[in-house]
Amino acid sequence: MTIPFNRPYLVGKELDYIAQAHANGHISGDGSFTRQCHTLLEQITGAGKALLTHSCTAALEMAAMLLEIAPGDEVIMPSFTFVSTANAFVLRGAVPVFVDIRPDTLNIDESLIEAAITPRTKAICVVHYAGVSCDMNTIMAIARRHELPVIEDAAQGILSTYEGRPLGSFGDLAALSFHETKNVISGEGGALLINNPNLIERAEVIREKGTNRSKFFRGQVDKYTWVDIGSSYLPSELIAAFLAAQLEQAEELTRRRIDIWNRYHAWAESIEDAGFARRPIVPVSCNHNAHMYYLLLSDLAARTQFIEAMKAAGVGTVFHYVPLHSSPAGTRYGRSVGQLPVTGGTSDRLVRLPLWIGIEEHLDQVMRAAERALAPRPTMHRSISE
Ligand SMILES: *Cc1c(COP(=O)(O)O)cnc(C)c1O
């Protein structure tokens, strides 16, 4: 592939910081680079407390433990998301209850949430797709009315805002991802953001194998011991060092992505006008982080043909998600509310274009290839001499 779908970008200091972590003589978790990442994340997101994890998946699992999700409990979420949104709760024995998405933002349709609530509902987990916020005013009002905690799967949402407020600062808990395909990366990596202060102390315990090690290091207890359930969710300092370098440049990384996104969006206007595709829709209440540029094509056949033609032109494009409610595990562990027609249609029609820092010089090539893939050469017109 001449132009891959994703290429991880280095800001420059990552490897120096990793060497520094080693020179510090501390490469297991929770050293000075981890503390620096926590501070940077709390500044960026406005969250009460940030804890690095080895993935967003891990942060979601911690969220499920913290909310004491138990067998038979229900958690309301979209079906149009990555598997980890559901798996974290299924691992606690809970039932993901899938509701449809809005046709504009492809986020959970907040108008369908209340009808999905039952006496077994224990939480609402929303996903900010493509770094564009869900309707948090409505969602938080429903959650308050029914006294349900909200978890934000903000894997794609770092540095996005809703009504000027950072994503990850609304729910009781939120999860970020630093997987290499996201905006700010550490290969694999994530963070749990904790806005409900009652959950902070237990989050530290769960993350540290169920021990009170964090309290011990703060001198608050004189020995450290097993106090609760937990696992090993903290990343090594090598990962935190890499991430610290990225987080220091997070705003610059986002600016550069937004430039690329804007170029795609201006270019795709005529494609939309010609009826070949629909462009992303960003509500006025949302500032997004240019995590993703996608097009919605007319149907599955058009999308399949597009991805093939792009591949032949050397450009990597991908689709997602296979809806969770119709996946083998989703039908086994989950339940849907209604038919989820928007989820089904979106999943057939969506294609993601490559968006990474450094692609700028290749963007024209991507756009020309996409134009040809969308509108195959018209059949030859009859020549005048005939
Ligand atoms: C990427 C992603 C995840 C998983 O993140 P990891 O860090 O790979 O565990 C979860 N949810 C959504 C919506 C994602 O985009």
UniProtKB/TrEMBL annotation:
Domain of life (superkingdom): Bacteria
One GO molecular-function entry: dTDP-4-amino-4,6-dideoxygalactose transaminase activity
GO annotation terms (biological process): polysaccharide biosynthetic process
N6-(pyridoxal phosphate)lysine sites (modified residues): 182
Keyword Chloroplast applies: no
NCBIfam families, per the entry: ECA_wecE, PRK11706.1
Full protein name: dTDP-4-amino-4,6-dideoxygalactose transaminase
